[in-house]
Amino acid sequence: xxxxxxxxxxLSSLTDVVxxxxxxxxxxxxxxxxxxxxxxxxxxxxxxxxxxxxxVIRTWWRSFKTxxxxxxxxxxxxxxxxxxxxxxxxxxxxxxxxxTAGALTALIxxxxxxxxxxxxxxxxxxxxxxxxxxxxxxxxxxLSMRHPGRTVLCLAVTFAPVLIFVALPGTRTAAxxxxxxxxxxxxxxxxxxxxxxxxxxxLRASASS
Length: 209
Prior knowledge:
Blueprint: H1 6-28, H2 34-49, H3 56-91, H4 98-128, H5 133-146, H6 148-167, H7 172-208
Helix pairs in contact: 1-2, 1-7, 2-3, 2-4, 2-7, 3-4, 4-5, 4-6, 4-7, 6-7
């Protein structure tokens, strides 16, 4: 069972995912640096999806440093909006008017979905392409609308751990450990797999221009 065997390659890939998950979680701890950490994780996972050879920790760190400053421009507002939406939804729990609370909750959920849809596309754009933060944001909005099926799949993958955690209380310990060991990097891997044809096409277009 040598280094070229399927088992060895699979084990090596799993080890890489665990390592990237750990460093990404550490990078997310200050919260304001989470955008750069998630961008770096997306960069490494996207390269894994395309079978590109790389030193995963070195690649993660290079991407983190390169994109840290720019990521603050879009991540901090997005994080504040998501936190505000969660707080507003929590406050609605005390509203006595059920119809009003339901309507406001629906609007909050739509806002969260829109913000997350932009984030799942802005991560690979920031990781692989040079542009301004507003340029990346505009392109993320365009891609999210141009590829609605892939956007919906990315949203489903992104929110699946949260839905499982909330809907299945008996699995919360296992879900928490999954996120600690694999979760964030694995979600990025699945999203990179979903987005692979689009991002690969953009990379080819960029290389030929």
